[in-house]
């Protein structure tokens, strides 16, 4: 058999992807044999399926070659556990990674088909909320590209992030049934399934050697079934795997009812089990404490660890080798139950004692924190854990007992340290998942320099003191393959023509562009590319909203989740100020400018939804005002997602990164915009600080309070009323909103916003930064009047983005945290 397999993987039975004729033959074969449609009557969807099945074959061949090599080398691996992966569409990505886009385009053209139209048929798998999920996807890309042995684990949600429409100015959520026409990329592994247990009770006994043993019995079980998605890297022989778990009912559970003759109850149970992987929770900053969410977290953690341990034992036999052979990265605390679950598997399944099990466990995990917002730090009610995962609660208590011993030793007599460091919050009777993740990990990292500093100084200072060197920084990055090469072919070609293509896998190579900022011919070409991208974006938005933007105007873009801390409201206040200024004919007349805002609000986050409505009301007023509409236009872009980002980011002139300093952990959109030649207007928050250091103070618009100033101002007593009293422009803007100018049908529509700003003390300091923001925006307007200087700065931004590649992040994780090396293939 071996020679046949070898032939399939390496021989001439494969499609020759550099030969148009060979591709065409393969396409027709796949269309007929796999899709089952007559090529003469095939529509774009059939062609999409055909191309993806052809690619899937190649993915499988190369994937096998990778895993054969990995086993051969006994490679140390990293497992990336994440509740979310926002991979974006796959088709163009795989073509680009395999280097076959142009041949495929040609082959399809010969068959009368347009590749771009076919690619549009693919649903965008929205298996994530925002930054954290997209970061996971960028990391998988960087790992595969640089040949690191990485492996992702997550959930195959049947419904991903809701799709958003705007009706009557308001967000409406629609279910994202992304699988309804099948998912050609996945490999279903019916044979790879694990039972995941819930509820039940614990029985403890002494074994034959007199040791205390515990068993978890009378559980309700759900089956986790594996679906694999192959992950390609750019021009890389390594194919990684993203294994997503889907919940199935177990037959054993159904039988109980069957035997009682209660068929309907049995089927009902089946659907209850399957709800576990039904839907992604669309919140990215407030934890709800819902039992179903807890079950989702445990479901994917348990299945992943069972799979990891089984694979380890197949290859290495010996559990003691676990920390040598694997490392597991926890993407935020959502998979933090992995710590007690690993303990359970080692002790209850494999019979290890507590001490050796704990030594192994602590040598395996690392934890990334992605947020400083207190309401986003996960905690679970003890009562709920006791009910859903009684064995894990016991293990957590034992971990806490040992941990608090060490705290007492390190901080003798310090009751406050004990209280703050305990895994149990006594006042609320909840388990603190970040504490659990920290105690169970060998390294903890923040995602930008400021964020890591604040974690160490303000959020977990005692942990930092107790374990010097445990907290480290790894600043986020983005993959230049999707966020430049794929989404901005015009700029990519221009760069490659000028400096070669080394930047595609080493972004620091972009520094070679710096001298070209002084080359007027290059500047002209650079701005011509921007112009084309703005036209493409304008057409795209016209299609989505009916509103046409003028590509000659400054495209001012803020796209990200809608949240008070990200301060879309500050953006709106500026827009209203511009509106007033233009109407009054005040000098200098700003603009023309198109303000584009996009993003989803969590369905239960009323204030965020109200901000969306305000943007739309303001847009309606401005865009219908003949006196203003040629100088200022406002567009709310609906359904912001990876695919829309790919069109939006290359077309931006100005990137809005205006969070309250000390609230945005890193931001990654900020990096994507600058990489595509937008200038940033931003606060000294998250990675903006490092972006400023790289591009230079002259090439970025920084404004507002620093994180330390925000803290001091709050401490001294911040008074939003006074800020407004002292600023006539601000007062007019606020009055206009609260008087119902933008909502004449309902004059009190925005009173909740007024209350948040005044009665509730303007938690995010929107008013405090208003004047500084106006000044920075005035500087933007002035600079935009000087296109040559603008272009020079934009080019320097691109040239100096080398640091912000996810390749750099991944090399840092690999060297400093994971201790893994690229594979040799
Ligand atoms: C359970 C509710 C929930 C869900 C998701 C709380 C918090 C989250 C995430 C941690 C939110 C998130 O996506 N954070 C973002 O992570 C990015 C990648 O590190 C950072 O760039 C963003 O600044 C951060 O907001």
Automatic annotation (TrEMBL):
BP GO annotations: glycogen catabolic process
Gene3D superfamilies: Glycogen Phosphorylase B
Necessary cofactors: pyridoxal 5'-phosphate
Post-translational modification N6-(pyridoxal phosphate)lysine, affected residues: 672
GO cellular component terms given for this protein: cytoplasm
Main location group: cytoplasm
Key words of the record: Allosteric enzyme, Carbohydrate metabolism, Cytoplasm, Glycosyltransferase, Pyridoxal phosphate, Transferase
InterPro entries in the record: Glycg_phsphrylas (IPR011833), Glyco_trans_35 (IPR000811), Pyridoxal_P_attach_site (IPR035090)
Reactions mediated catalytically: [(1->4)-alpha-D-glucosyl](n) + phosphate = [(1->4)-alpha-D-glucosyl](n-1) + alpha-D-glucose 1-phosphate
Domain of life: Bacteria
Subcellular location: Cytoplasm
E.C. designation(s): 2.4.1.1
Gene Ontology molecular-function annotations: glycogen phosphorylase activity; pyridoxal phosphate binding
Physiological role: Allosteric enzyme that catalyzes the rate-limiting step in glycogen catabolism, the phosphorolytic cleavage of glycogen to produce glucose-1-phosphate, and plays a central role in maintaining cellular and organismal glucose homeostasis.
Similarity remark: Belongs to the glycogen phosphorylase family.
The protein's name in its UniProt record: Alpha-1,4 glucan phosphorylase
Organism name: Roseospira visakhapatnamensis
